[in-house]
Amino acid sequence: MNSQRLSPALGVEIVGFDAREPSDDDFGQIHEYLVEGAGVLVLRDQTLEPEQHIAFSRRFGDLFGEAEPLQNTVTRYLHPDHPQIFRVSNKNADGQPLGRSRAGNYWHSDVSFRLRPASVSLLYAIELPRIGGDTLFCSTTLAYDSLSKEMRFFLDRLEARHDFAINTQVGFSHEQIETDDLAGQNAAIHPVVRRHPDSGRKGLFVNPGNTSHILGLHEGESRMLLAFLYKRCTQPEFIYRHSWRPHDLVIWDNRCTMHYAIVDYDADRYLHRTTVIGERPIPAISTD
Ligand code: OGA
Ligand code: MN
Fold this sequence. Notes:
This protein is 23% helix and 26% strand. The protein is α+β, with helices and mostly antiparallel strands.
């Protein structure tokens, strides 16, 4: 295995690793590289059938679509034969165009609207446009660390509501989400600052894709503070821009990063994503 940093902020690239049958040692090393890459790991040259992609993903934990359904959010993006696989594409499973793909075309952390949000997501590139279709990743840990001590003290004590309904306003086009999808379990309250269980580091955990407001503040205060935090998180110094190559498997940790799918292409783009169910976010400070 050869590793290389991809940007000063985040991202490590690995060449010479096969996700189809990693030993326990190899998997342990992958896990370490993910922490070293501050939550973004690029595994080049993978050949993954859906079953192999799912098997590798399970090593990180229980999967959405398996241990807990994700169908009630984005039914039409699910793989017809594998409910664990989320089809990230501008075409549906029958090859019919869905129009411009809007999936992920806004800053977000996957499934943050659930009580137990996603820990890592694993996205495998099958079909890519010749140019365009990059994905941006930002480090919410670096963003948190860049704030003043007084601001961190204030944020450490706050909670925010995450609600999938917000998603319909900022990202997905409305017709792609059925009314039912919005009923039920797709809302949760989380700490604004969460501690990462592996690195022990604190990071901001609010995102424009799913966060509706910060609890206890006036509406205008919440809006202003969230806008400030989003701006800080997505500062260019805290970003890695991934230009996809066929057979890339990119693993990101939703607990310390956000990502953004750039929709600047007209050709077809098709990727498979699996999503691991994480822990309930650990607050920055213990609340007793
Ligand atoms: C996702 C996502 C980004 C992309 O799969 O969760 O946001 O660039 N995708 O497709
Ligand atoms: Mn996403």
